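Lab channel / #folding
Pinned by the channel admin:
"Please post every new chain as: sequence first, then the structure tokens as a reply. Keep commentary short and put observations after the output so the thread stays searchable."

First post following the new format, from NK:
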Amino acid sequence: MGKAFRFHTDVDTDQIIASQYLLYPTIEEMKKYTFESLDPTFAERVQPGDYVVAAENFGCGSSREQAPSVLKALGVKAVIAKSFARIFYRNAINIGLPVIVCKDLYDAIEDQEEMEVSMEEGTITAKGQTFTCTKLPAKMQQILDEGGLIASLNK
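Reply from TO:
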């Protein structure tokens, strides 16, 4: 179980981690500025095992890998959205952050509500309801299970 941190449509990578913070040498130094322009307290409030839930086109904008990386570094268990920008989706899988397409969850859940994700079953449970999600292909799930693309290739 984790809490949902709810964000709107068209959240771009600059809103996830603003470009001025890309000057920091490590993700650990960057992560405290995650979603600074949308929710300045996000990095302080999010706990390992929590989720980011968004509407359409999450992660649009530039192709910076730091956007999914700061979410993973903060302990976000998965990002669930109605749809994703393609490059963010691939970057997230490559660094080992689960990204799940779920068309109905966003409209049914409030910010900070408890929810649980079953990647194996392709379901999300929240508010006493079960939502069906898109399950990842086996190869992509294997990449996630092994910690990302580089870790998977090294095995």
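NK: The chain has one domain: 2-153.
TO: also worth noting, The radius of gyration is 14 Å.
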